Each structure stands twice: as structure tokens, then as C-alpha cells.
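A reminder from the course coordinator: this example appears on the midterm review sheet, so study it carefully.

Given structure:
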């Protein structure tokens, strides 16, 4: 499951935020099809950010994804994400995107749906008898939950 956390300056309309998050989701889905993508947008007061000694708005995106996509798909995704963020927040300097890949069987958390509809986060362990895999779906299916799911 790709997770995108975007820190941005305050100031754009709610409809623009919704359009941006939809566009980011669409670009991530193009690189990681058949996955659920979570996008979180947090606005930060411009006075709390300094870049190279100057206070200004920040546009910083952290993207945590499962491994396995090709270099071309990754490059295309990063270019489209950068362009979408720069367009939504013009005149705010550079766009920084940190793309991290983690094997979900060893580094991610699993959601444990309950009958009540609640979702609980629990660490997962591939275990010695269950090999790690680069296939996100297979890793999620073979992982054992170390919590009360």
C-alpha cells in the first residue's frame, strides 16, 4: 500500500486540496496498480519553515511504497507528482519528494479489520518459515500478525 504524506504551506482552497490529492492518487496508482493508496496532506505555517536561511513555504512529500516497480515507472511517477504539487502551490520554491521502498513483511504494518468496522495497526512478522517477498500482495497474505486481530 503506497502512503503519501505531503507537507505544504497554508492557503489553497479546499477544492484545490481535494483535486491535488486525487491527482497524486491517480499518479501513484499508475505506477502501483491494484493497490490502495493513502494520501495525507498537512498544512504548515510558512513562519515555521526555513530553507537556506530564508523563511518560506515548504512542499515536502514523503512517499513510502512497496518495492518492485521499474525505474521508468518510478521516474514517470516522480515527475508527475512533482508537477502536480508545483502547480497547486506555485511560487513556493522547490518541491522535495523522498521515495522510500520497504518490504511490507518486514517494515510495514498490517491493518486488522474487525467486525465493528474499526481498523487496528499491528506489527507483522514474516517468520522464519515464511520467506520475504518483493510481491506486496503475497507478503501481506503470508505475514502473521503479532497482535489481537
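Designed residues:
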Amino acid at each position: 500500500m503506497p502512503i503519501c504524506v505531503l507537507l505544504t504551506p497554508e492557503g489553497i482552497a479546499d477544492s484545490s486540496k481535494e483535486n491535488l490529492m486525487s491527482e497524486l492518487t491517480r499518479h501513484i496508482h499508475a505506477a502501483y496498480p491494484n493497490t490502495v493508496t493513502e494520501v495525507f496532506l498537512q498544512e504548515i505555517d510558512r513562519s515555521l519553515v526555513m530553507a537556506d536561511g530564508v523563511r518560506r513555504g515548504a512542499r515536502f512529500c514523503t512517499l513510502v511504497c512497496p518495492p518492485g516497480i521499474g525505474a521508468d515507472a518510478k521516474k514517470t511517477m516522480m515527475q508527475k507528482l512533482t508537477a502536480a504539487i508545483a502547480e497547486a502551490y506555485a511560487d513556493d520554491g522547490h518541491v522535495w519528494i523522498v521515495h522510500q521502498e520497504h518490504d511490507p513483511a518486514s517494515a510495514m504494518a498490517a491493518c486488522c479489520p474487525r467486525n465493528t468496522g474499526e481498523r487496528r495497526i499491528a506489527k507483522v512478522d514474516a517468520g522464519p518459515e515464511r520467506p520475504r517477498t518483493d510481491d506486496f500482495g503475497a507478503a501481506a497474505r503470508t505475514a502473521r500478525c503479532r497482535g489481537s486481530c
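The longest helix spans residues 14-31. The CA atoms of residues 30 and 77 lie 8 Å apart.
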